Amino acid sequence: MYLVKQLFEVSYAHRLLLHKGKCRFLHGHNAMIEVALKERKTGARGMVMDFGDIKHALKGWLDENLDHKTLLNKKDPLAAALKKQGESPVLLNGEPTAENMALMVFRAASRLGLRPHSVSVRETANSLAEYKP
């Protein structure tokens, strides 16, 4: 079994509306996103998939949807205030946690033609959430 992983770095702001601690306040992270592809065999080129092809498939989506964006729960009243200031926050159906971001990236990678095995979001050096179906 072969497992290849491509790393992406994104900077984003978020707050967890339902959190009781300091994460309820708007703050930011420089996160590492890891997309893993798994195959039993390599292709004719001896690869699961060329790393450049993985990057090409997903980087534009990440830049447009996560990098330097503000992620909020769609019920967050801060969204309206940001929109009045000309910002376009990314609104999620739930809390913008690392877990939900991993699921969001997994689904995007699938729609873009990748066949992800898992996606992880390392929010800090010590905190990582992974989505694997």
Overview features:
133 residues; alpha/beta; Tetrahydropterin Synthase, Chain A; six-stranded mixed β-sheet; 6 strands; elongated
Write the topology of this structure.
Blueprint: E1 2-14, E2 27-39, H1 51-65, E3 69-73, H2 78-84, E4 90-92, H3 98-111, E5 116-124, E6 127-131
Parallel strand pairs: 1-3, 3-4
Antiparallel strand pairs: 1-2, 2-5, 5-6
Amount of helix: 25-40%
In the CATH hierarchy, what is the architecture at level 2?
2-Layer Sandwich
Q: Approximately what portion of the residues adopt beta-strand conformation? A: 35-45%
Number of strands: 6
Which residues sit in consecutive blocks of at least 5 with pLDDT less than 50? none
> How confident overall, as mean pLDDT?
96
Quickly give the structural class.
alpha/beta
- Which strand order does the major sheet show? 4-3-1-2-5-6
Count of domain modules: 1
Distance between the termini: 17 Å
- Mind summarizing the main beta sheet? 6 strands, mixed
H/E series: EEHEHEHEE
Individual helix count: 3
CATH topology: Tetrahydropterin Synthase, Chain A
Please report the first level of CATH classification, the CATH class.
Alpha Beta
Radius of gyration: 16 Å
User: So, the CATH homologous superfamily?
Assistant: 6-pyruvoyl tetrahydropterin synthase/QueD
Q: What gross morphology would you assign?
A: elongated
Explain the overall architecture.
The chain has 133 residues and is of the alpha/beta class. It has helices at residues 51-65, 78-84, 98-111, and strands at residues 2-14, 27-39, 69-73, 90-92, 116-124, 127-131. It has one domain: 2-Layer Sandwich (Tetrahydropterin Synthase, Chain A). The protein contains 3 helices and 6 strands. A 6-stranded mixed sheet has the order 4-3-1-2-5-6. α2 (78-84) links the parallel β3 (69-73) and β4. The radius of gyration is 16 Å and the shape is elongated. The model has no long low-confidence stretch (mean pLDDT 96).
